[in-house]
Fold this sequence. Notes:
Bound molecules: calcium ion
Order of helices and strands: EHEHEHEHEHEEEEHEHHEE
Structural class: alpha/beta
Largest sheet: 5 strands, parallel
Number of helices: 8
Amino acid sequence: MAPYILIVEDEPDIRELLNFTISRAGYDIVEAENAEDALKLLDRGAPELMIIDWMLPGMDGIDLAKQIRSDDIFSKLPIIMLTARGEEIDKLRSFEAGVDDYVTKPFSPKELTARIKALLRRTGQPENHELSVAGIKMDLTSHRLFVNDKEVAIGPTEFKLLELFMRHPNRAFDRSQLLDRVWGRSVYVEERTVDVHVLRLRKVLKPSGRDHIIETVRGLGYRLAS
Ligand code: CA
């Protein structure tokens, strides 16, 4: 999935306004109407930033933010909370839930865009949609991989796998975590499949001598050593 901003808002009018405002600023948008749908989308790949409405049917925005923060893969995912509530105590509650910024409805499109940009800068998310670790560079917009500045062909699953590793250098993932993040929780795939694709990924990196960067963590899974 290309880099995107995930909007979680139940009111169609506001969703449309958010979509219009944010896509004009040059970001791709994915929309969810409720927290449950948002969590399913997160399984398919992390967005660069999330905008969550506080008042949602079912699980509310605060509980959604807390649940996202409790998953260490998403512990640094930038989150802006959107709400009609403006009281100080509510702001404190949303910051306690791990929200990075807070925008009160009705919002000014210009202010929202400025806050998104500021937050992406602050949290170090690449605005040009590039990841770069140890001589390996991924262009997430065009889905291209460069190793030592030379373009290298890579399959879509290997690309997603490498992207996950590059986003979390030195972090060890077990096979089920890799399955969840790369293939999604709703898909049934055997854990052996992970090994097959890690082998393919190493093959992609081998000609440039970078295959050793994907390390096997004995008894656990894999990590990218930077
Ligand atoms: Ca709402």
